[in-house]
Amino acid sequence: MSSATTRERGLSGQTVVVIGASAGIGLETARRARAEGAKLILTARNLDRLQRSANELEALSTAAFDATNPTSLEQFFRDVPATIDHVMVTAGRPHYGRLLDLDAEQARAALDSHLLFALQVARNASPRMNPGGTLLFMSGTAGRRPGFGLGIVSTLSAALPALVANLAIELAPIRVNLIAAGFVDTPLSASLLGDELDNRRNQLRATLPIRRVVQPADVAALAVHIMINTALTGATYDIDGGQQLIAR
């Protein structure tokens, strides 16, 4: 019998919650976790797409709601039908534009949907989690350097690692980690770039050190590794194919 068939799957018997599981990175992470033996609880806004994901992956349960709504998020974790081992959060989208063009409400919305959202997830998920599990959040690398229209993205990219590190101390032995991605070829990227999507793909294939575009499955592989490796906490893991190493 080959080692591949005898290998113990790394998430066997564990329950993984994926927030934003209907497409892109969230769906691929759910697939990877299921392949490692996890039981899945999936959430997303779009009920139809969520149900398709749940049927494919034989999810333990699903919930369709806006995870950035604090009341809905609190209710979801209160009603979760199992003790949780890991939570992967992929919901949300970047906010672009000149800082001085953002009014107070837009700036507050950007902070709410990233920093405060992560805090709300931690507050509501941690009482339901087993020791040694991980809360895993998503951020980006492209906004770390100053750039026109990237001010609020850069601010959030700089703040999230500090939030994650402090949560890792406060919630121990629950682990808290952050994945910082560059461009990933997802439906969200397609919706943001529109007609410029193919040009961006071609540019990245020509300039990235890996000579290809980062895919959702690449991020999913990292996410599941972080779940399995119980020595990892309080850290930020970049995955951008070397995008930070090249000039804009």
DSSP helix fraction: 40-55%
- Unreliable residue runs: 1-5
Number of strands: 7
What's the tally of helices? 9
Order of SSEs: HEHEHEHEHEHEHHHE
Cross-sheet strand order for the largest sheet: 3-2-1-4-5-6-7
Q: Structural class of the helices, strands and pairings? A: alpha/beta
Span between termini: 50 Å
- CATH topology description: Rossmann fold
Task: Using the alpha-carbon principal axes, give the shape.
Answer: globular
Report the major sheet. 7 strands, parallel
Q: Rg, please?
A: 18 Å
What's the CATH class, please?
A: Alpha Beta
**CATH architecture descriptor:** 3-Layer(aba) Sandwich
Strand content: 15-25%
Q: CATH homologous superfamily - what is it?
A: NAD(P)-binding Rossmann-like Domain
